[in-house]
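stuck on this chain:
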Amino acid sequence: MKTVIDFNSDMGENFGAWVIGDGVDSEIVKYISSANIATGFHAGDPNIMEQTILSAKAHKVGVGAHPGFRDLVGFGRRLIKEEPKTLVNDVLYQLGALKELASLHDENLSHIKLHGALYLHSVLDEGFAYALIEGLQKKNATLPIIGFSSKNCYLQKAALEAKHPYIKELLVDRDYDDDGNFVLVRKARTYTPAEVKDKVELALKKGVIKSVSGKEIAIDFETMCIHSDTAGCLELIKAVKKTLDDNNITVRKAS
């Protein structure tokens, strides 16, 4: 069984006066090791980005960019059809914004993780996946990207071929289908702490998760995620952290 795991959460996903989810980022950051900070296209703004960077720094949590589709209205969960080059430019633009704000506070970015529909797009769209890895290789060949854990994921294939650091992820608060793909929804269903505890223990001890039909699917992962916009996320995060502690697993940011 694993002895070290990264635990990440999507953060800073408010916008101006609007709050997404339960609004508990200041508590979430106490339990995780990596923060994926929204970079303005699906959520977030410069002030919220800076506040989240400072919170992560105070708790010695990795600061990562969380770029999404240019879709504030749909919270980045709607597919936007664009050429791969256009989407890569959007990602690099958002990455640069967070990098500059982080450097203002002497913080380096620890990783990048795509958001929502763009995350799924990197799994399914070969052209975008390869173009994105090519772009990251040119700008920062050592910056790890967190992505979906599946042999059928194009982003994972592109990263492995280019020898770009890739961190395989288990989405604890998302359902998986029988083919091992996660089920993208506009609004996540309600999960219980017991559900996520059982899912994490099964993944840690047997290397499998259960699909929506009950089928066991093999999974390899180095990081796990609970989303901050999932209802009751703080209790879910506490349940995951306790499960990791009970199994003598150290929570530490991936590198």
